What we know:
Layout: H1 5-18, E1 20-23, H2 24-39, E2 44-48, E3 51-56, H3 88-94
Parallel strand pairs: 1-2
Antiparallel strand pairs: 2-3
Amino acid sequence: MLHGPGLVQIYFLGYYWIMIRLNIHQAKTHLSRYLPRIQAGETILLCKRNVPIAEIRPLPAEPTEPRPLGLCKGMFEVPPSFFDPLDEELLDLFEGKSP
């Protein structure tokens, strides 16, 4: 079984050979051709003179359902002192004034 630095090198070799590699000129000229593949989950390796400099990858999908409220209900209690006015010195610090 492979393990250690050799496995990491094999992983990265496979990672960079499988993904789409585009030089900057190709990306500028044909980016719209590759957008459906990016949306499908593929990653583009952007190169400058065949040297990788960046990756273009899809953003994570936005949640379709709203986040449920009250996930931490009963786990903590906000003390009444939380609503007390802050000291002037602390307010000055929040406003960027020097003490």
